[in-house]
Amino acid sequence: MASALLESRFLQRRAELSGLLGRLGELTARCGRSDLESVAAELAAHALEPFFLVVVGEVKTGKSSLVNALLDAEVTAVAPDPCTDRIRVIARGSEPGETAKGPLLTHVRLDNPILDGLAIVDTPGVDSIIDRHQEITERFIPRADLVLFVFSVLNPYSRSAWDFHDLAAEAWRRHVAFALTQADLATAEQIAVNTARLRELAGQRGMADPTIFLVSSTVGRADPEAGGIEALRRHIRELTASGGHFAAKLEATRRSAQRLLADLSSGLDARARELDADAAEAERIAKRLESARLAAGREAEVLRTRVEAAYARLSGAFEAAFARELTFSGMIGRSLAGLWRRRDQAGPAARLAQLGEIFAADLEREVEAIARQGAQHVFESVTGSARLLLDELRRHRHDRDLPADALGEQRDRVLAEVTAGVEALLADGGPLSGIDPGSVTGMDPKAALGGALVVLGTLFAVAVKSTVIDVTGGVVAALGALLAGSALFWQRPRVLAEMRRRLAGGGERLRRELDERLAARVDRIFRELADRFEPFFADVAARRRSLEELASRRDELAAALAAFDPA
């Protein structure tokens, strides 16, 4: 009855731990840590296995002989050469025998009561000359509940053996006991000195009172008590009595799960620090984009002011020239000239058209030079800022050394996308290349008003030139209509007043349209540039949410593992 209650309690605890291990596996999968996910799966499978006593040590230290003596049966071969080339899992079975489970593992069945709820694992030597022995032994250690580390009492100092011990005890936090074998071959002095040295080496690794068994397998087969085999059997029985081995198994698995979670947590903490750096970088990029936009806006304002000044100066000259045409002497001269010309070629409207063409040509020529120079400044300002941001992003992209996981893959993918997008924006023939004034040379501004301006390319110079053509053409056309009926001398004050009004209105329209068109072009450039960086900004926010969720799950799981009581 007591045994049944004990088993029931163990099954309940095991189910609870299995649930926690399932959560651990899910968390490692969500983090994209495939390296840890496979280990979590091994731990979950291990929780359902019997208690494993794993025997490890160097070749020819007597591991296999020790296992045979312990079980009082020839379950593993003993030979002068390294002969244990497979992991052998020895468990209780009513029909003795063995079954190969792949190239590296053999299951052995033996009807021995010491194996109740227990499996003994004999492993290849950690320093074996046979290929893959150490590899397969290391792969099996995570499944161990108790590691019996075997040294020859003649030489318990091997560095490779102690390095392997550190793997078992530190990396996986397993319980470790020691067996000093071949005691029948050593003197009492050698046994005393080497046992003391073993305790010292164990103490250096945090084991103040290590469990050590002094055994002679040769003697133990005939006299288990004298050979130290019975003492080891008693230790195993004490472990398995009253469910101690159940609790030990669950406790060992819990500690391994905690270590795995600590590794996962370390990666999450590193990702959190990386995210903080990315968030700071995103904030810097946003601020620099805004600063660059303001700088480009100032350049556009300077451009508009210079165009306004040119318009004011040339429109004043246009007004003065036409005023002279409307003087008495100018009209008489035009009448005489009309004797040899057709009337419609000598009238005030025709002269106005001629002067208007001169005004428009002079203004367009001067404005084009101003616009081209201003566009160069804007081009250099915008592309210079964008290239600085791109260089920083490239450096930031590679400034890390963290284990591969889902968040890292997401970050790499987004940064590659953003970098490629900005590079394409700056490339020859790309959208920003169109603000280079060289790209609008010889362009017909009237044609540009059609489809070309829809593209980001044909920016400042075309915008200015097309605005000038619209304004000057409108002023001349309006004044031509005014003069079409008659051009008598006494109408001069009214005509000149209307001309001044029209030219002033044209100047105001020029200022307004330049403001609107240039502002629209600047905004469009920086919307395009900001759009290229937007995936980075969005990814920072998305990774923040993911990390917060993962950290919350981790903290909950860590608390549950800490509170788990295997007894």
pLDDT averaged over residues: 76
How big is the Rg? Answer: 45 Å
Helical content (DSSP H or I, runs of 4+) = 55-70%
Distance between the termini: 18 Å
Helix tally equals 15
The coarse silhouette is rod-shaped
Record field, number of beta strands? 8
Order of helices and strands: HHEHEEEEHEHEHEHHHHHHHHH
- Poorly predicted regions are 328-346, 434-460, 485-489
Coarse structural class: alpha/beta
Read across the widest sheet, the strand sequence of neighbours is 3-4-2-5-1-6-7-8
Beta-strand percent range: 5-15%
Note the main sheet. 8 strands, mixed
Descriptors for this entry?
567 residues; alpha/beta; eight-stranded mixed beta sheet
Short description:
The protein is of the alpha/beta class. It has helices at 2-31, 34-46, 63-71, 133-140, 159-171, 188-203, 217-222, 229-240, 244-325, 328-337, 348-397, 406-426, 445-448, 460-483, 492-563; strands spanning 51-57, 87-92, 97-100, 105-110, 118-122, 146-152, 175-181, 212-214.
Describe the fold and architecture.
The structure is a single chain. With 567 residues, this protein is an alpha/beta fold. The chain is built from 15 helices and 8 strands. The chain has helices spanning 2-31, 34-46, 63-71, 133-140, 159-171, 188-203, 217-222, 229-240, 244-325, 328-337, 348-397, 406-426, 445-448, 460-483, 492-563; strands spanning 51-57, 87-92, 97-100, 105-110, 118-122, 146-152, 175-181, 212-214. An 8-stranded mixed β-sheet has the order 3-4-2-5-1-6-7-8, sandwiched between helices. Helix 6 (188-203) links the parallel strand 7 (175-181) and strand 8 (212-214). Helix 11 (348-397) packs antiparallel against helix 12 (406-426). The protein is rod-shaped. It starts with a helix and ends with a helix. Residues 328-346, 434-460 and 485-489 have low confidence and may be disordered.
